[in-house]
Specification:
There is one protein chain. This protein has 2 domains: 102 residues, N-terminal domain of the delta subunit of the F1F0-ATP synthase (Peroxidase, domain 1), CATH 1.10.520.20; 73 residues, no CATH class. It is of the alpha+beta class. The protein has 8 helices and 4 strands. It has a 4-stranded mixed sheet with strand order 2-1-3-4, with helices on both faces. It is 63% helix and 16% strand. The protein is elongated, with a radius of gyration of 20 Å.
């Protein structure tokens, strides 16, 4: 909960600065690349979460890594987080930032969990059907979970559609047990 409270003002400030500088597209791209880097690099994830490393060291490291690879606003934002010792909240800040961008664009995020990866055609079908249901543009986030055995689970805002084989089998077992 504290992460979100800390993340909101930073995410809002980044969004407003990006909007004012007409750099929103670049910043969204940078945030997506940062998210990938954190997921793929344990060393980078440790860098941002380490309380031992000094803010100056982190700021200099961000400068070396991102000077040529990101928009200057993104780099300055990362250095600001380091100087304020808030870089450990980067993941939460990125999530809130993405939510702000989606809301401003009239988009909703749908999390789709399947047992196997979706094809591009299936993803587009989900996007269209959920768009019709919600009346908004839909951005899909997909997750693979073999435990659902088949089918899918979709979370769209506060609504969950559970059409997984595992849940259907559980309901069948309950009906059989009840007679």
């Amino acid at each position: 909960m504290r992460d979100i409270r800390v993340a909101k003002p930073y995410a809002r400030a980044l969004y407003e600065a990006a909007s004012e500088q007409n750099a929103l597209t670049d910043i969204v791209r940078d945030i997506d690349q940062l998210r990938e880097l954190i997921e793929q690099s344990q060393e980078f994830a440790q860098l941002i979460s380490s309380p031992i490393l000094s803010p100056q060291f982190k700021s200099e490291t961000f400068q070396q890594i991102f000077a040529d690879a990101t928009h200057p606003l993104t780099l300055n934002f990362l250095k600001l987080l380091a100087s304020k010792q808030r870089e450990r909240y980067l993941i939460a800040i990125m999530e809130v930032f993405s939510a702000i961008v989606d809301e401003a664009a009239g988009r909703v995020v749908a999390k789709v969990t399947t047992a196997v990866p979706l094809t591009p055609t299936q993803m587009e079908q989900f996007r269209q059907q959920l768009g019709v249901y919600s009346g908004k543009q839909v951005r899909l986030e997909t997750e693979i979970d073999a435990e659902i055995q088949g089918g899918f689970i979709v979370q769209l805002e506060d609504t969950v559609f559970d059409a997984s084989v595992a849940t259907q089998l559980q309901h069948l077992r309950q009906r059989l047990a009840q007679g």
